[in-house]
Amino acid sequence: MAQCSSASMARMVCVTTRGRRCTSAIVIAMIVAAVAPARVVASTTVTPPPPAGTPIQLTRDLTVTAVGDLVMGSRPYGLPSDGGRSLFTRVKPLLVGDIVMANLEGTLASSGRSKCGPSSGPYCFAFRTPSSYAQWLPKAGIDVVNVANNHIDDFGLIGRRQTRANLNRVGVRHTGWPGSIAYMQTAGGTVAVIGFGFERKNQNTILNLPAARALVAEAAAHAGVVIVTMHSGAEGRTAQHLTFRREIFLGENRGNPTAFARAMVDAGADLVVGHGPHVMRAMELYKGRLIAYSMGNFMGYAVFNISGVSGQSGVLSVTLAPDGHLVGGKLRPIRLVGRGVPVPGGTSVAKVRALTAQDLGGRGARIAADGSIAGAPTP
Length: 379
Fold this sequence. Notes:
By secondary structure, this protein is an alpha/beta fold. Helices cover 18% and strands 28% of the residues. Helix 4 (209-220) packs parallel to helix 5.
C-alpha cells in the first residue's frame, strides 16, 4: 500500500507523479527494485495528492525559509574533520519556519561512476557527499530539498537512487524528479513544492514551459500555496544582474530565469526561489508574489569559490497569506568562511537591494536596509 512519510508530528509529505496512477507508479518502483543491483535502493514511495474534499485554502499564514546551493563536502575535494557535525551550527537558529528548503547541489551517495573522466576538461565537477551526512539536514531544520540541478546526475542512476534513499531515510523531502510534486502538510494546510532545473533529463526542466505550467496548475488545484524552486541562470560574479533573456554558460542553455519565474506565477505559483548562479540576485514582487532570482551559495565545503560576492549569501524567510500573497519577509545575511561554512553576517542585504533597484526599479521587492521585505498590497 502507498503511504505518506512523516518528517515530524507537524509535517507530512506526499509525492505525486503527474499523469500516472499511484498503483502503476508503485508497480514500476517494484520492478526497478527487482532488477537493480542489491546495493541500490529503489525509488521513494509515490502517493496521490490529498484526497478529494480536502480543503484547499490555508487556514493561517504560512512561513517559508529558503537558502541557496548546498554541498556539505565531497571527495576528492574535501570533507569536514568532524564528519559534518558542526557545518550548520552557526546558522541553525535561522532555519525555522513551516517549511525550510534548500537546493541540494550534488548527491548523497557512497558509489556510482563519476561523470567526469580524463577527457572531461577543467570545468567538470562531480559532487558526492557521504550518505551519513544526510542526517545533518533535518537536524539543522531543513524539511525539503530541490534535486533538479546539474549535479544530481554526477554519479548516474546509482547516485540518484542512493540520494533519494538517503533523504527518505532521514525524513527530508525532495522535489524536482520528472513530473513530481511534493505535497507537504503544515499546520495551516496543504502546500505544494515543485523543483525545476535546466537539464533536459531526469528532472523537471525549465526548458519545457508548457509542461512546467501544467505541473504548477495541477499543484494549485490540490494545495493552498504553491512554491517553485528553480535552478537556472549563468554562474559567477559576472552573473549577478538579471539579463531578461536566455542565459548561456559553458555552452549550456541555462534558461531565461525571469520569463520562467513570471510564467510560474501566472500558472499559480505563490513563491519562486532561485539558485544556480552561485551569487545573489535581485528580488521581484510580481502580481503580489515574491520572486527571489538567486539565493547564492549557502554552503559549499571545499567545492565552491567563496571569494568576494561568491561568499556572500542569505537566509530568506517570508510570510505568505492563506491566498499566497506576500505578507512580509526578512533577508538575513550570511557569509561563507573557512572552507565554505556559513555564519551570520556579511553584505548581501546591501548587494541585493542595489541589484533589485538597478535591475527592476519599481517592480522590485521593497527591501529595507535591515533586510526587512515589505508585503504586497492587500488584494
